[in-house]
Specification:
The protein is α/β, with parallel strands linked by helices. The chain has three helices and six strands. The chain has one domain (2-112): Rossmann fold (3-Layer(aba) Sandwich), CATH 3.40.50.720.
Length: 113
Amino acid sequence: MMHVGVRRAVVESVAFLFKNSIIPPAYILGRLLFPAIVADASAMEGIFAKSALDWTMVRPPELTDKPYSGTYRKREGNLPRFGFKISRADVADFMIKTVEDRSSIRKVVGVAS
């Protein structure tokens, strides 16, 4: 990305990487039920963390096909409380808005309905 002049990246990851989530116990569930997904997402995040890019990691919980609502919640460093689901359209909206949000650079953000 750096070779072609890209400086900003907003990347979708997985909520299973939040180690301090109590409800839902995302990290434990992810490790038990989806170990390959958790390992892959963790490796991807590590690559971005070591890069010089202005990145933001977006970690949603279960994705749904519900329509855009615009009424989602975000929380830096964790999932919003009782954040179990979010529509793909709302995640896309958040990611597009985050591209221009300089305060979210090099941060991990949980987003949920």
